[in-house]
Design a protein that fits this description.
Layout lengths: L16 E6 L3 H16 L3 E2 L8 E6 L4 H19 L5 E6 H6 L2 H5 L5 E3 L7 H9 L5 E3 L24 E4 L1 E2 L10 H5 L3 E2 L2 H13 L4 E5 L16 H9 L6 E4 L9 H9 L3 E6 L7 H6 L6 H14 L4 E8 L6 H14 L3 E6 L18 H26 L3 E11 L8 E7 L10 E4 L10 E10 L2 E6 L3
Helix pairs in contact: 7-8, 8-9, 12-13
Length: 468
């Protein structure tokens, strides 16, 4: 992943300005939006880019080693920018701060302030403190995070396109043996249904044409609440909002897929026939070792069950290879499962030992890194073949495309522009896009177009607008 700079507005008043670099997943991006909303509500100004800001905020991810490396490299680069006299202070927030707290002061002595995930609403106060000259500010609560945040400015979007993320819950209760998220983010806790509907309406009013429901486990929405609201209820309430838009559910747990919300999705006008359900593995022995025994049966039956309930559904999943105890036979089981399942989208991670997790001490059972990376490559090679097959099946079919932005075409002449778009089968940031030709000159981002699929380029699709 790359460091993403999300731009909202420029400051022309000469006041101190704050620039954001948001790393990691969409859930982190929502936290950045929450902090930006606090700053704006507190009459502070956002910079047009981090390079032009007086104070640079880096919102970090610490899920796996690669994410920590990216965060550390970004922090060091931003601190060098400050030392060069180009900004006044650096503030670091997010998962890395929550996970490592005081250790970061020694590792990054040039950082002026650290802010935990339970203290997002203190960002304006922290900015004022570092602006006044305070250093080594540390605002991270003891123990596991417990809070939920509703944005001060619910219509604020950092996505840079006609889509938005709606974080429906925080934390996680699953305790997977490889995952440090419960220790970083705390127990699973759902936001209220009514406030989510209000926020969704504000996002639609701001011009969003697609709302993506996210959390560590969106399928568990409401299970911690006493009011009885569950995911099916939330989907139904959001589906009832006025307007022409898509709803999409991301980050689910295979063992929590209920017939109730599958039925609701099948009857919905706006919920995309798209499901993101990370299986992590297919072999029962590895799933049990991962502390995901409750998904063994669900994983085995999932593709057929979902396609029967939702004909034409696009399925995304994530796999983890190189977990302690994984042998070649276990991995071949996963290869055979993926080939039979024919997922539309698939991501693969190599196991990363994480402090505080149940699997951390199993170093002697962990396959060598080169073996795990080779398994990742084999799985992705299989997925590339499956994607090519699916693209051939889709060629000639019609679909609705959501226009995103214009981009210079590599297939046509220099200066020629092609619209980038997504179909319901393509989620933002994680899946490919659809290149659309023949778009009317008066089209704009956020328009829906009826297209015919003409082929594929790697993980992307090509298409043309259907006349009329």
């Amino acid at each position: 992943m790359e460091a993403e700079t999300k731009i909202i507005s420029a400051d022309a008043s000469g006041a101190v300005t704050i620039g954001f670099i948001s790393l990691g997943c969409a859930k982190n991006l929502v936290d950045s939006q929450v902090m930006a909303g606090v700053l704006i509500a507190e009459k502070l100004q956002l910079a047009p880019s981090p390079e032009e800001a007086d104070i640079i905020l880096v919102n970090t991810c610490a899920f796996i080693e690669d994410a920590r490396t990216e965060a550390a490299e970004t922090i060091l680069r931003v601190c060098a920018h400050k030392i060069g006299g180009n900004c006044r202070a650096v503030v670091v927030t997010g998962c890395m701060v929550q996970r490592y707290r005081e250790r970061l002061k020694q590792v990054f002595p040039d950082v002026d302030a650290f802010l935990g995930v339970d203290e997002l609403d203190q960002i304006a106060e922290v900015v004022r403190r570092v602006t006044s000259g305070q250093r080594s500010v540390m605002e991270v609560g003891d123990g596991a995070p417990k809070r939920l945040f509703s944005p001060r400015l619910p219509a604020l979007r950092f996505t840079g396109g006609p889509f938005a993320y709606l974080k429906v819950a925080e934390g996680c209760d699953h305790g997977c043996a490889f995952c440090a998220i419960p220790g970083i983010r705390g127990k699973f806790r759902s936001r209220g249904l009514d406030e989510l509907v209000v926020e969704a309406q504000a996002l639609l009013d701001s011009g969003a044409k697609e709302i993506n429901l996210i959390s560590q486990d969106t399928t568990s929405y409401g299970m911690d609440r006493r009011d009885g609201a569950r995911l099916a209820d939330l989907l139904k309430a959001l589906d009832g909002l006025k307007g022409d838009f898509w709803l999409r559910m991301l980050y689910g747990y295979p063992g929590r897929v209920t017939d109730e919300w599958l039925d609701m999705m099948a009857c919905s006008r706006r919920v995309c026939a798209y499901l993101d359900l990370p299986i992590q593995h297919s072999h029962p022995d590895i799933l049990r070792a991962m502390h995901r025994a409750d998904t063994v049966q669900a994983v085995a039956t999932m593709p057929d069950r979902l396609r029967k309930a939702l004909p034409g559904v696009a399925l995304r999943t994530t796999c983890l290879v190189g977990f302690p105890g994984e042998k070649e036979d276990h991995f071949r089981h996963l290869l055979e499962y993926v080939e039979a399942a024919k997922f539309d989208h698939l991501g693969v991670f190599v196991y990363s030992p994480e402090e505080g997790t149940a699997a951390f001490e199993q170093e002697d059972e962990t396959p060598p890194l080169e073996v795990a990376e080779e398994r990742r490559d084999r799985l992705m090679q299989l997925q590339q073949r499956l994607v090519a097959e699916r693209q051939r099946e889709l060629t000639g079919q019609t679909a609705t495309a959501l226009l995103l932005h214009l981009e210079e075409s590599e297939e046509q002449g220099v200066g020629d522009m092609t619209w980038m778009a997504r179909l319901t089968r393509q989620a933002p940031d994680v899946d490919g896009v659809t290149h659309v030709n023949g778009v009317p000159e008066d089209a704009k981002a956020g328009d829906f177009m009826c297209v015919r699929i003409t082929g594929g380029i790697e993980y992307d699709l090509t298409s043309e607008v259907i006349d009329g």
